[in-house]
Request: fold
Amino acid sequence: DVKVTQSSRYLVKRTGEKVFLECVQDMDHENMFWYRQDPGLGLRLIYFSYDVKMKEKGDIPEGYSVSREKKERFSLILESASTNQTSMYLCASSLTGVTEAFFGQGTRLTVV
Amino acid sequence: GQNIDQPTEMTATEGAIVQINCTYQTSGFNGLFWYQQHAGEAPTFLSYNVLDGLEEKGRFSSFLSRSKGYSYLLLKELQMKDSASYLCAVSPMNTGFQKLVFGTGTRLLVSP
Reply:
């Protein structure tokens, strides 16, 4: 079974902190994605990566950056956390853009 | 760009049939995905339509019409456990089919 693992289920951080959300997949997938999910807004794509060291902005990249140094790991970085970044963050991976994506369990981040 | 629209919420009765619609405006895509997400859990893959027409998978079927910019998910013999959000998603052509973009999701409530 494909497994996508996010490092934390719940995180509480202070405004202005630098925050790292880690995601690891174990199926040698090319594509990895970071989404945030907010009530009424659905899943919004922050960044995605289709290969090691390759990244593309999604629909809402402002305030975020990403890192993919190894194929299995895709990190989301909040350079200076703000309260409007309080959300559920979901990582996903897929073999290609035309195959199903597998999701991690999500990280609920609260910025206070 | 791509806009993917779904009804926000639907209700149905156990044993009934429900159709969840998804309309989209996009410059082109390879196929359309449907995912299920139970409250507090990660989305899981349900179906993928590449060609126009109906794809059947047990109690669930998905339909695609590219000319009409329209898809639907049909759930038959509804069970209480089908109460969940249903998300449609596409991989747009202009991103090499790598990017995966979701609609806002439809929350389905199944009552006894």
Notes: Chain B has no helices and eleven strands. The first strand of chain B starts at residue 2 and ends at 5. The CA atoms of residues 10 and 33 of chain B lie 19 Å apart. The two ends of chain B are 41 Å apart (CA to CA).
